[in-house]
Amino acid sequence: MKRKNISIIYFFTTLLILGLTISAYAAAQSDIPEVEITFPYIGNRVAIWLISEVHLLFGAFILGTPIFIVVCEYIGMRTKDMRYERLAKEVTKVTLLCYAFTVLFGGMFAMFLFALYPKLSAYLLIKFFPIAVVVYSILWVIESTLMYIYWYTWDTIGAKRKGLHLAIGIGVNISGFLTMAAINSVASFMLTPPKPVEGATLWQLVNNATWIPLILHRLLGNICFGGFIAAMIAAYMSIMSKTEEDKAFYDWQGFVGTLIGMAFLLPIPIMGYIYSLEIYKYGAEIGVYQMSDRLSKFYAINGILTGLLFLGANYYIWLSMKRITGAERFKTIIKAGFIVVFISNLIWVIPRHFIATMILEPGMGYTSEAEMVAKAELPNHLSFLALMPAKNIAVTLIILITLLNYILYWRALKTGKIVWGKIDAMADYVLIFQAFTVIWLMAFMGPVRELNRKFYHVYMHIKDYTPDAFSPTLAYSSVLTTIITWVFFGLLSLAIWLMLHKNISPEKSGPHGD
Amino acid sequence: MPEGIFTLKNIKFKAVITFIALPVVWIISKVIGFPILFRWLFAIYIVVMFLFFLLIDAPAMQRRKKGALSIFVTFVIASVVYTFLGIILPQYDPKVEIEKIKKLTTGRIEIGAIESPEKLIETGKDVYDLYECYNCHKLKGKGGAKTRGTELDEAGWESDLYIKESILNPMAFITEEFDKPKLRDAMPDYYSEEFNEGEYKALIAYMKSLMPSADKMPRDWWTNQRIIFEGKKIYDGIANPSVNCAACHGRDGKSVMSGARELKDANAKGSEKTDVSRKKPLKEWTDKDWFDSIKKGVPETAMLGWGQALSDSDIWKVTAYCAALSGAKGMTQENLKAFIETERGKSLTAYIDKEDKRKDNISELEEEIAGN
Q1: CATH for B225-341, among 3.30.430.20, 1.10.760.10, 3.30.420.40, 3.40.50.150?
Q2: Are A293 and B141 in contact (CB < 8 Å)?
Q3: What is the pTM of this model?
Q4: CA distances, A492 to each of A94, A147, A331, A439 (Å)
Q5: What ipTM does this complex have?
């Protein structure tokens, strides 16, 4: 994409956000008559849901990838392995276009919020004005500016003064992290506002019960997300590649991307657990609503899909081992590990009962409580399987098996010879499937945090009197999530094709490949 | 899909293992006690494992010529699988929650609209369901978990004041069972602002109606320190001036009146004049023996029936204290004396003293809650 076009998009969108913000603030002070708008066909909530999730997915990508881009550039500098440099540059190209998508959808998100929920938007912006408007906007400008400087000076400053170039990259990451932390304060405030809200200082509003856990969860999630997307980029390029050199490079990139994704996937269940603990501590009734009542089956899907991610990663290691000479000796132990992963995931997923709420409700297909208990509820002597200790053991086992497989992989590398570019073609589709899974999972679990608030915009403080103030069914949420994933995937695939299709044979690309 | 995945070579051994595993797992899980839906879950996992092992042992897949199409197909397969998962898992009807929200936001219960005590109790049950108390509390076998909230089947034994304070000001006193870092704050403390008068009065009426048979000591009361302390106040004649068990049975259970049953020693037998069941040592008494002795008295002895002066709930409380005097039910005088000296013991004593003074002046409680 041309520099000028990116800059224009970025400039006007930033102006738009600032302009709308100031208008909302002014509107809250004036006597402008209230007009309620309902978004046609899908309603206000779904409109916000779709746009905000696509924005969040792009946001996660542009926050997560610069971290490992800078690390890869550093490793490339130290080891003189130009593959790291190439990986960093190509992923940066895609990230740049995704910055524009993030801003565009962010602008849409802001516009839709102000139009469809004007009072709530004004309330939040006024409450968090210094952080959510001033600091956030400034950080966003700094981050984007640094990102463009980082990219456009890669072959100038980056060639002569790598340290300075890396410092710019670190600046991108720090400002990105602070941007995320700033806006996380608003999101976490809506779920766990300080008690009481009135009279709370700005710091108390920001530093609420789930601010830090959300930051940690999102930080690791973003890097994990970025890793899997980088692996997906490699898979796309590998499928499109025509030369052995490109296939070898993208095979390697797929491995590195998956390694990053898995390295940061391992602690995510722990971060999620800490996040849930803080929610329980703040209000046990929220924790119960999410884990035992209406949102319990959302977490069942979370368990299944996270298990699939681990299984996919271990399967990818299996495929990777096949191209290392002498690695056959580890086949049996890896297969045994797969069995443990399946059994552990089964334990992780076992529910207390097969109804979607805490107690039986009308329309669930049972004529009586006794029938439900007989067919669908764990008896007392087996109820321990539905409790956290059993789940924690299951997750720990899955993590350990994955670690073990990586250790076996490194051992195989030490004693054998790897032939990059000769991996089973199935591996590319595994990487795409992994990326799809992590995107779908992130898009699916984001709304869960919002639905936790039940019929409140700000929990126990501002009620939501709109007709949408209820938790939609799992089926409905799944369909919406698939739509969101397709939108994101479509735009991301477009970004990859636009920015990288000329890069398949590196000798054809110019300094920036544009 | 790689070619060669469904070859006989790849399938045969795995199919045999799967066909053996399926019925074996089904039968074993049935014997252990897993209900049918869980057995189906296990069966699905075995089949998926079978397919997965076919995949990992399949020969290497050849590169596809139509790359974009194959990527698209991968998306479609993943979309279908995940959307299908979301559809096939158990669902709820959102109308149930929508109705609740409507009642909570616009259709609040007003006390004036409730015509009778029975209607009040019925309304209280609705309030219980509306505010989803079942999420933490188990009642009639439904809802909750032991580790999150008290079981409420016998809530009716507690005083109105205690129930009201537990709902509206739960931090006033936390039972020992829940006095742990993870559980201490579990009970929401905002109901004093959320409930209107109609709702909490209806809820208290419903809680008070939960009083099963009087033949059994309410759950955990034999060793509940608060109950035993309240029983002590009755026993010592402090709570109710017309009742003073200590006058005959002694402050420490060593009787001071001739003919009064020794309560200090759980092994001591009763007088020959008493009936068979109460001749036996206190540690062998049934709950009914204790209750009837205090409520109806003991024939052929000076022990009067105190059923007119004490409520059934108070009778159970003083029973718990009497059992503690003798050590018949786990709690002993020594344990109690040691407990009183602890931090928790002191706060419990202060709490009970405050409740006692406030018993006839509920408005003071309401002022305190409003102040909090």
Answers
A1: 1.10.760.10
A2: no
A3: 0.87
A4: 8, 18, 36, 11
A5: 0.89
